[in-house]
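fwd from M.: "can u put these together and see what the complex looks like"

so here's what she sent:
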Amino acid sequence: MPKVIYGGQALEREEDQSVLDCLLAAGVDAPYSCRSGTCQTCMMRAVSGEVPERAQAGLKDVYAAQNYFLPCVCYPEGDLEITDPGDVGKLPAEVTSVESLGGGDILGIRLKPLTPLDYRAGQFIRFFKDEHLARNYSLASVPALDDELSLHVRKVPGGLMTGWLFDHLKTGDTVTITEAAGDCLYVSGKPEQNLLLIGTGTGLAPLYGIIRDALYNSHRGEIRLYHGSVTPEGLYLDAALRELAQQHPNFHYIPCVSGDNVPANARSGMVLDGVFADLPKLNGWRVFLCGHPEMVKSGTRKAFFAGASMNEIHADAFT
Amino acid sequence: MSLYDQLGGEAAVNAAVDIFYRKVLQDDRISRFFDGVDMAKQAAKQKAFLTMAFGGPNNYTGEDMRRGHAHLVAQGLNDSHFDAVVENLAATLKELGVSDELIGQVAAVAETTRNDVLGK
């Protein structure tokens, strides 16, 4: 009899029983609603074993790429080990560098995981100060291009976590992080599709990873990055992004400064105003939004109304 | 041939869901009921609703529908709002070139959920 392995327990599954029914029969309090593979309430992630194609029909491609599936319509041939969607393990990492970025209040931290870590560019990890204090930070690194994990951290006035990171974290420290999670990431398979990336502040970090991942995968469609900041110092990857744009004709970098002090080579105004003045129609575009929650919320709505499909809008609000 | 097959099955649902959800969010009569919801999760729910209304595979239970809308009924959700949703559904199908006859059939299926949605 094929088994479902969940929470370290092997559950016997009848051939004609869905994975969801198997879990429920075993007394697992699994969430569900439609039981027909559409509402996605029951979504889980496969850790090992073959997920039948039917159990991923209709899922966002970024979910399917990470082995998420719908237990209510999943009838696997063999054993399947599964986990709750948000479940991630912890691991130790060594701090390999800490540096100021852009001369302002942003810190670049590089970490070397001390046990193997699988991740995709654009995902985030949770970073622990101690048992009681931890924050999520997006990864700016790309597994295929970078040996280390790279994070961008903005100093929060009076913030407990960032206060510690800025004042005490140093090269050589060993820290605890979690495995990577999140679905704001590049999925290969549509190399001609146009990509629009909108970020404010350190929301740039995951977008930088996604862009480099796309270029590494020989993405041929247009890639447009709009980075919004109040001050010029907040455009902390300006030089690197201009160089990247020089090297790749299909990549366009549009910095936007909303404060009074606008450099000659940046746009004046709010980032979303810049985006939708340039791109009133987004039919067929894939859109990524990261940063300030209000910008992400408003931008998601505007991108959808401009014609982007909800399945191709990826948002990550920094709260 | 079933209604679902006549409409074009899952591909038809995929074609309709963005258009329908855009109309609903831009309709001043009902948009406030969607304030603060996670748009991606809501889109998946819209898809489940369309699949059901198109006569597709579903395990619709009136109880789920009641539970899912109870907080909106408390905020004043009533027949006029339900009518607006059905109107947007018909306009979506019209835009996709579906015949009036089939649109009528879809509206009739949607109609069967009215009392559950409105908690009557």
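replying to her w this: The mean pLDDT of chain B is 92.
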